[in-house]
Design a protein that fits this description.
4% strand, two-stranded antiparallel sheet, globular, mainly alpha
């Protein structure tokens, strides 16, 4: 279960929005996000994403970047997204920076 305070935090909120709305990422919420320790296994997620499509990798990179800017993302790669994932990406960006 996601703690209520994380749903209000702009860093967590944008990451959790992408994870909860993306059909690939949603499968990894409980296995790679520790809500007790408030940590994300970013290296594990990056490792398992190796065989994913470019759009799935972009969504992961964007989620991690919105959570913590040390994870870099190239916004030009957003061109690879389908309309649904573009909408998710734009909303997450707005959640983080609004």
């Amino acid at each position: 279960m996601i703690p209520q305070e994380l749903k209000q935090d702009r860093y967590w909120k944008s990451l959790l929005y992408i994870f909860s709305q993306n059909k690939t990422l949603i499968r990894y919420i409980t296995s790679h996000i520790d809500f007790d320790e408030l940590s994300i296994n970013a290296s594990g997620l990056i490792k398992i994403s190796a065989p994913w499509s470019p759009s799935e990798k972009f969504m992961l990179k964007l989620a991690l970047h919105l959570y913590n800017e040390r994870h870099k993302v190239n916004l030009s790669d957003m061109d690879r997204l389908d309309p649904i994932n573009k909408k998710i990406a734009f909303k997450a960006i707005q959640m983080r920076f609004a």
